[in-house]
């Protein structure tokens, strides 16, 4: 894991990043700015069990591509989950929390994940380990209205104007942050690569 000090505000941004793209960069930049983070850990996972990745690039390739695209020195690209046999987000957050007392972590995720968040293993455990920042993504702006997670933790939601205090709150606490959105998606990029005739200029 990247080095951190007690009291630091750190975002945890996990994904398969197959491949990483400017939409991921935008989420990272918004999180850094709106949450007032000292660091953002860009955590490249072995794979998401809920997603059909098609052909999953090697972890090494995805880490290297992520390092090439990561926006600035506060973003730390890491693949510690694979090295420690962690396969689920709930496991990862418990692992991070146990080894970094006094650090103010926030789980950062794109709004496109919110719809299916309740299908993640021990999703309530995730919501009750660290505060969560949900960053707007195309087609998912209203996801928080229908999401099972959003309904279950409605009373824990704070206004996005107060997003800067999220790292200091005890979980469960979350916010939905609107902002610039990129239409890019990893699945669309993979599909375009597989069939260039269907890509748009």
Automatic annotation (TrEMBL):
Its EC number is 2.7.7.18. Residues 12-191 form the Cytidyltransferase-like domain. It catalyses: nicotinate beta-D-ribonucleotide + ATP + H(+) = deamido-NAD(+) + diphosphate. Keywords: ATP-binding, NAD, Nucleotide-binding, Nucleotidyltransferase, Pyridine nucleotide biosynthesis, Transferase. Gene3D superfamilies: HUPs. It comes from the Bacteria. GO terms for molecular function: nicotinate-nucleotide adenylyltransferase activity. It is an enzyme of class 2 (transferase). CDD domains: NMNAT. Signal peptide: none annotated. Pathway: Cofactor biosynthesis; NAD(+) biosynthesis; deamido-NAD(+) from nicotinate D-ribonucleotide: step 1/1. InterPro entries: Cyt_trans-like (IPR004821), NadD/NMNAT (IPR005248), Rossmann-like_a/b/a_fold (IPR014729). The keyword ATP-binding applies. Pfam families: CTP_transf_like (PF01467). The keyword rRNA-binding does not apply. Catalyzes the reversible adenylation of nicotinate mononucleotide (NaMN) to nicotinic acid adenine dinucleotide (NaAD). Belongs to the NadD family. This is Probable nicotinate-nucleotide adenylyltransferase. It comes from Hoeflea algicola.
């Amino acid at each position: 894991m990247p080095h951190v000090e007690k009291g630091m505000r750190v975002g945890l941004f996990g994904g398969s990043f197959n491949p990483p793209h400017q939409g991921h960069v935008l989420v990272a930049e918004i999180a850094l700015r709106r949450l007032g983070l000292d660091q953002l850990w860009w955590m490249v996972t072995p794979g998401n069990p809920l997603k059909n990745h098609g052909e999953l690039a090697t972890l090494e390739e995805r880490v290297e591509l992520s390092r090439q695209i990561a926006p600035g020195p506060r973003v730390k690209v890491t693949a510690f989950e694979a090295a420690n046999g962690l396969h689920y987000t709930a496991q990862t957050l418990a692992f991070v929390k146990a080894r970094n007392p006094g650090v103010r972590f926030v789980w950062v995720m794109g709004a496109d994940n919110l719809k299916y968040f309740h299908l993640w293993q021990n999703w309530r455990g995730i919501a009750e380990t660290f505060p969560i920042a949900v960053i707007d993504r195309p087609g998912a702006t209203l996801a928080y209205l229908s999401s099972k997670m959003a309904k279950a933790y409605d009373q824990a939601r704070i206004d996005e104007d107060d997003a800067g205090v999220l790292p200091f709150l005890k979980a469960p606490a979350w916010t939905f942050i609107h902002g610039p959105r990129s239409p890019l998606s990893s699945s669309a990029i993979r599909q375009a690569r597989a069939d260039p005739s269907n890509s748009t200029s």
